[in-house]
Design brief:
1 helix, two-stranded antiparallel ribbon, two-stranded antiparallel sheet, mainly beta, 4% helix, 2 domains, binds zinc ion
Length: 124
């Protein structure tokens, strides 16, 4: 990741679970532990901008199904920013799993713009 400390999107390791989270986070989105309590941080409002949820149910015939949960993040030009397997497992006959994707947005005061790559799509 290219963001440096203090910039919008700057990452850090969560102190409890070591998941990569935002430097600005007041609550760890992974383990839900509180990270700090200063007034300035509490004024920031995080909204859930996107949530997608779906259930996959095994019809109770045949063998178990194996699954891989793959998450891909792309920028405005379609380039992959991140591509990772976030979980694997099995669904046994008659069993089900529910998968939920949530994107939480937090406004910042960082007014700088990231420089566009030279090969990025032109917008004329
Ligand atoms: Zn955590």
């Amino acid at each position: 990741m290219s963001q440096r400390p203090g910039q919008a999107g700057a990452p850090r390791a969560g102190p409890h679970c070591k998941t990569t989270i935002l430097e600005s986070a007041t609550v760890c989105p992974s383990c839900r532990h509180y990270l700090r309590f200063d007034d300035k941080a509490q004024a920031v409002e995080t909204t859930r901008a996107l949530q997608v949820e779906g259930e996959i149910r095994h019809p109770a015939e045949g063998g178990a199904w194996e699954y891989s949960v793959v998450l891909t993040i792309r920028d405005d030009d379609g380039q992959e920013v991140s591509h990772q397997v976030v979980g694997v497992g099995a669904i046994h006959p008659g069993d089900a799993r529910t998968f939920t994707l949530a994107v939480e947005l937090t406004p910042t005061s960082d007014m700088r713009r990231m420089p566009k790559r030279p090969n990025s799509r032109s917008r004329h």
